[in-house]
Amino acid sequence: MKNPREVTRSDVIMMIGIGLIASAVGIALGLWIDWFPTAAATQAAPIDTFYDVLIIISVPVFVLVTTVVLFSVFRFRMRAGEEELDGPPTHGNTRLEIIWTAIPSIIVTALCVYGASVLSEIDAAKADQIQVTAYAQQFAWDFEYTGSNGKKFLTEQMYVPCKPTTAATGDGAACSGQQIKFDIKAVDVIHSFWIPSMRMKQDAVPGITTHTKVNPNRIGSYPIVCAELCGIGHSIMRSTIHVVTPARYTAWLAAKSAAKTG
Ligand SMILES: [Cu+2]
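A: This is the predicted complex of the input protein with copper (II) ion.
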């Protein structure tokens, strides 16, 4: 009589078939979903590509594990009359263990190298920077600028200049501008500074100053949020970064500077 628990060649072929189809569907779905809002900084493209690569690599791994688990649950399930039986003893399989150690090691190492190269690319300092200090506290953001008179001022709404690269100057217009360098400080507890449209996120930790940079490239207003559960008002800890033309920025900076000294 045929052993119902024997894994046959056709089982393996079936699992490979299901795995390939499920992987293709999963990858297509993963790439189709817009995970992030409209991109508004040069940092967005390499990060979005990185996420696509992660989806392409992680979906087949998930499908492989799930397919083998579900097949095993079905094929090796307990049948009537086996309630008191113990499973057969299993010894190691050296070849299998080498394979399942080596392949993940290669994948993780390759992703690590790729991730580090993306980080160094998006975090590269440009000569022309505007320095802004972001203060995080329950439950608001404050941004410290150096005004046109050289004196510092605080603002809850961020404005940054970006020169339109085409005739269009309204929201959504492509632009190129100075890099914004953030020094991030937390006044009370741990927060996390995140501009989803510009993709960059950095923890704000009491006692130390952390840093991040963005190179805005799209005119418009984009949310700044706190990405670290920091208390009861965490969800309302939001601000906005307004990417505006250099003329509007200069006017805003002058008005803010005048308000501070006047
Ligand atoms: Cu917070």
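The mean pLDDT is 93. The CA atoms of residues 12 and 68 lie 10 Å apart.
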